[in-house]
Amino acid sequence: MAATGQRRRHGFVDIAPIFQPLPIWVWLGAAVAGLASLVTHYPLLSATSIVVLTACASLLLIKGESPVLFCCCAMQWLQAAAATLYCDLFDLPMEIAFGAPQMETAAWLSLLGVLVIAFGMRIALSSMRRGRIVARAMEADVNRWQFERVVILWLGSWMIGVLASAIGWRYPSVHQFFVPLTQVKWIFFYIMSYTALRSGRNLFALALIVMVEFFGGFLGWFSSYKEVLLMVIIAAITTQLKLRPLQIIVIGIVGSVLLATSIFWASIKNDYRYFVSGGREGAHGLVVVSVSDQFHFLHERLIRMDADRIEDGVKRLISRVSYTQLFGNTLEYTPRFEPHSKGELWLGAMKHVLMPRIIFRNKVRTDDSERARRFTGMRVAGTEGGTSIGIGYFAESYADFGKAGMFVPLFLIGVLMGLIYDRSLLNRQSCLLGSAIGTTIIFSMLQVFAMSNMKIIGGLILLCLGFWALNGVLGAGIIRWVRR
Q: By C-alpha distance, which of 464, 467, 23, 471 is closest to 243?
């Protein structure tokens, strides 16, 4: 009895319940937010948004483990709820703010879909060997891993990733086989972050690496600065069953930087891309100016930020994050003008994954924009214009199976993600390495709300097989080399 009480005091669990206990301040915050939402433009929808996010946290935040499954649901929740938050902030109806029909229905279905995915993830997780066992196994690795050698592995995998990305774009038929190599760096970055934050050592070195990743990503066309900040937050939450002041400070600083840079980027994105492409219209992904010129442009725009530009950045950011407009258009158009496809899209996604282009040379290339035109009736730009606009896998599931049937594939996607994370954690070589592999695979799916089902299924299976194969071949050797 005393042992059970001790386990509870430290937050350890041998058998994890379906819903995990959350700190009292989480419930208080949810209650305050829920009450405040009752005076907004969409009171019931806003209150439900708070309930869904809190339920996802209780389902997926298991103390001592990576919160990546919850983060995946939280990002999709943000994309589902952003339109509601935007209209509450500026007191506008969705149809006027976004110019799309049935936005409120799309928001309701999206929130319910996120909750269904979270249930699928939780059901796929084994309730045994959670919390206490995982935390202790990962902590045991901290004192045996040499931080300097993990840094070498991160640097080497970063260089391999750059080369693999270049080869993949040069030879599209083999591009998918090089994708895992472009993501390996996040495995070692997660391990670096976890070991540094857990032990309290090498924090300065970690900060330098974060700055390199952050500025390197910010200067690119797609401005991929968010990934490194999100991974630091994930690692910081993983390190403690109960967050210490160091982890709380790190999460607060990194979260504030992430929000501020996102608002700044939203306000300058179009002008920045026009500048770095040398003023070329339609030059998608082309950067022709020097790094110093890029820094000069960013510095100039930063010192010109004022209250009006910040407000404009907030509006643009919320509008950009929201991805229920096309779902609303799909609800309006299908099945009124285009009948439900009755499984055609999901069956096509499975066939697409099982038929690699290197073997099936004549495999038809898919165009997300073509699906958008078919199920929304809108004339959107496609591959002929150097872009692709998809309706997202929530809307694709509705187009296939309708309002009730759409939740079946969403639930199965959640189960697949949960199984991948759970199986990755059972790494024979190292629990910390297994957690890093599972976290990195799911981390690649953080913003999948706007993705097509083909890219989600293909990305999960490809990364899963690639990482597990690399672990089987190189895992034991890596562990022997990095351990003290």
A: 23
